[in-house]
Amino acid sequence: MTAQLPTAGFRDPEFARRLGRRHRAGTWYKWICFAAAAVGVLTLAVLLTDVLIDGARRLSPEFLSSFPSRRPESAGIKAALWGSIWMISLTALMAFPLGVGAAIYLEEYAARNWLNRLIEVNIANLAGVPSIVYGLLGLELFVRALGFGRSLLAGSATMALLILPVIIIASREAIRAVPGSIREASYALGASRWQTTRHHVLPSAFAGILTGTILALSRAIGETAPLIMIGALTFIAFVPEGVLDPFTALPIQIFNWVSRPQPGFHVNAAAGILVLLAVLLLMNSVAIVLRNRFQRKW
Amino acid sequence: MARRRLMDLVTVLCLGSWVACGGGGAPEDRDPADTAGDERAAGDGPRLSGAVRGDGSSTVFPIMEAVSEEFQKENPGVRVTVGISGTGGGFKKFCAGETDLSNASRPIKETELEACRAAGVDFVELPIAFDGLSVLANPANDFAQCMTLPELKKLWQPEAQGKVMRWNQVRAAWPAQEIHLYGAGTDSGTYDYFTEAVVGEEGASRGDFTSSEDDNVIVQGISGDPRGLGFFGYAYYEQNKDRLKLLEVDGGDGCVAPSPETIANGTYKPLSRPLFIYVRTTALDRPEVKAFIDYAITNATSLVAETGYIPLTDELYRLARTRAGKRTPGSIYEGGGSQAGTRLQDLLEAEEAGAGGDDTGPDGTVRGDSAAA
User: Residue A284 belongs to a domain with what CATH number?
Assistant: First the structure.
């Protein structure tokens, strides 16, 4: 690069000095950014190592297939694992259509009037509401007012509310990223707005929508506070069989084990964290696979 | 092409959530009230089904967890849930009729009795175990062996806040080092009981101490702080003996260290307390709840000891079984909440002696005055 610069100022010693300084500043900047990236990765590595050292020896098929117990060595995570799988599936069934529907309305149909602006501002604000507040809402609305009880349905509905703003925002971004020319081409061929959305906008935006949804679900599977409000902090030694059954979830089981006096339970908690991490990583890899599968290039 | 992909997507989503797609709404709501009706007479043990819903104290939780675990091994058809909402939180749900039984680390309070009465929730109060609130110091503390009740009060009462900050202010012979206090959180029955027993008023204490609902936090606090002092249930001391120094407490009759013997026979006072389960009387009509309660009382001695608490005497368990059988309504504490120094045995024996002509059945009302009968 430097060889092609005009040579007039290049011999100027002042210029050379400043150039060196700029290069040094650039290098510094690179390393500061690297350090910023490393902080997160290192913290994660330390946490993972710590948990692996504590929990790996406890992981076994029996750990996955046993119910909680007062004896740490025979306690397992079956009820919590199934509870989490149930809850996240129900949450997805509720939050996905609602979130994508809301995003389609706001991006494709909504006129720029005060009502829609109000909706938009509210959704953006809802994304920042602490999860415990959703727990309180879920307790009053789903558990008490609608009479769901302390059930899977109440827990999933609360979680669906919690992640709805995230799904809406992510889906809107994805829909907005679809070039306007695609829509115009569709209209030009005589397609209606719904046909355009259904056959062109949605398929094109699907990769982004799915990624956003699965990341939101990953947040839901690790949430503890709203579930404690709902009343899932419970000893349960059975697998739920219907949406109105009581349940417990992985983070709750971990929380429960950590607060026990026996060190054996703390090992169980570490193993439980590994199971939760595995579920999370699995969900994230599904997100990546789906994104690659549905991605469109123009 | 797009259609193909959408179909793939539906397949993937269904695979991901196959439980919901496949078996989703199929199983009906198992309302315990429905299944209760199908049950034949109580006693056909293995055929029991239905649900037992419990909630309440985190102190009593380990005991009920053990009971549920063993009970469900013998009765796989019954689904027992035991929540952890704290004694007060448990009573809120219990008096709203949301649970069948409530675990409590102190007797029911007047306000809670009112709530139950207003909702028409009648209950039976059953003692299940003893717990000894223990006063703990760091093992590096070589001067403190025993504390008198007045000393504990001097240290913990609300007036001590910001003033009593050194060990020698509690007892002149102790060094002029700072004292660091740890204790149970204010939502716990443990805190209620400690303040009642030590300060003389439930819920009154200094506020400048490290508090946590999680007893492990207090254990870690004291074991890592040579100047620390704190209190929590005896079961947590049992599990952490090597990291803590147990202090004796002088309740007026000399220094006594908490131990299974001194807690059970009442000589460790006033910091030993009974733990309870409260059962809704209408729930006791359901065979699975009755079987669960019977199981709890019958196997309490071994299960309570295993979880680190102190079992009641056989005589007290016999009295508890009688109460459950007769469905004696109300609280022997008459809504007084934590009552330090009251002996459980005396109360129950007085009640049994008094209730000669027992016509106490489930009659839809809560009577807090049954002990006076």
Answer: 1.10.3720.10
Question: What number of other Cβ atoms are within 10 A of residue B345's Cβ?
Answer: 16
Identity at A297, one-letter amino acid code:
K
Q: Are residues B96 and B215 in the same domain?
A: no
Does residue B176 sit in the same domain as residue B85?
A: no
pLDDT at A7: 57
Structural domain includes residue A3: no
The pTM for the full model equals 0.76
Instruction: Answer yes or no: do B20 and A89 touch at CB < 8 A.
Output: yes
Give chain A positions within 8 Å (CB) of B98: 149-150
In chain B, residues with a C-beta closer than 8 Å to the C-beta of A262 are: 239
Residues A270, A284 within the same domain? yes
- A1: in domain: no
The crossing angle, in degrees rounded to 10, of helices B189-198 and B86-95 is: 120
Rg of chain A over all Cα atoms, to the nearest angstrom: 25
Question: What is the pLDDT at residue B80?
Answer: 93
List beta partners, residue B103: B56, B277
Q: Give the gyration radius of chain B's Cα atoms.
A: 24
**Domain of B147, in residue numbers:** 132-264
Asked if the Cβ–Cβ distance from B19 to A199 is below 8 Å, we say no
Q: Who contacts B184 (Cβ-Cβ below 8 Å, separation ≥6)? A: B190, B191, B194, B211, B212, B213, B215, B218, B231, B232
Q: Rounded to the nearest 10 degrees, what angle do helices B86-95 and B110-119 cross at?
A: 20
Let me know whether A156 and A285 are in one domain. Answer: yes
Same domain (yes/no): B65, B169 = no
Residue segments in chain B with a per-residue pLDDT below the cut of 50: 1-3, 6-7, 9-45, 356-373
Q: Are residues B258 and B280 in the same domain?
A: no
Question: Could you tell me if residue A40 is inside a domain?
Answer: yes
Enumerate the residues of chain B whose CB falls inside 8 A of the CB of residue A260.
62, 216
Contact of B81 with chain A, judged by CB distance below 8 Å, is answered with yes
Beta bridge partners of B249: B147, B256
B262-319 confidence digits (pLDDT tens): 888 878 888 888 899 999 999 999 999 999 999 999 999 999 988 888 999 888 899 8
Domain, as residue range, for A71? 62-297
Q: Which residue in chain A is spatially nearest to B236 when comparing CA positions?
A: A261
> What residues does A118 pair with on adjacent strands?
none
Interface predicted TM-score (ipTM) of this complex, two decimals: 0.76
Mean pLDDT of all residues in A260-275 = 89
Q: Which pair of tokens denotes residue A250?
A: 């992985």
- Comparing C-alpha atoms, which of B66, B94, B63, B53 is closest to residue B275? B63
Please tell me whether residues A17 and A141 are part of one structural domain.
no
Q: Looking at chain A, which runs of residues are DSSP E strands?
A: 234-236
Contact between chains at A261 and B215 (C-beta distance less than 8 A): yes
Q: pLDDT tens digit string along A95-148?
A: 999 999 999 999 999 888 899 899 989 998 988 899 999 999 999 999 889 988
Asked whether residue B226 falls in the same domain as residue B147, the answer is yes
B62 in contact with chain A, both atoms CB, cutoff 8 A: yes
Residue A184 token pair: 């115009």
Residues of A in contact with B12 (CB under 8 A): 286, 290
Beta bridge partners of B51: B79
Number of domains in chain B: 2
Whether residues A28 and A95 share a domain: the answer is no
Residue A188 has pLDDT above 60, yes or no: yes
Residue B364 lies in a domain: no
> A119 lies in a domain?
yes
Kind and range of the H or E element at B82?
strand B78-83
What are the tokens at B282?
């209408």
In a 3-state reduction of DSSP, which class is residue B170? Answer: helix
Look at residues A58, A73, A96 and tell me which one is the last residue of a structural domain: A58
Among the partner residues A92, A246, A260, nearest to B17 by beta-carbon distance: A92
Q: Annotate A78-99 with three-state secondary structure.
A: HHHHHHHHHHHHHHHHHHHHHH
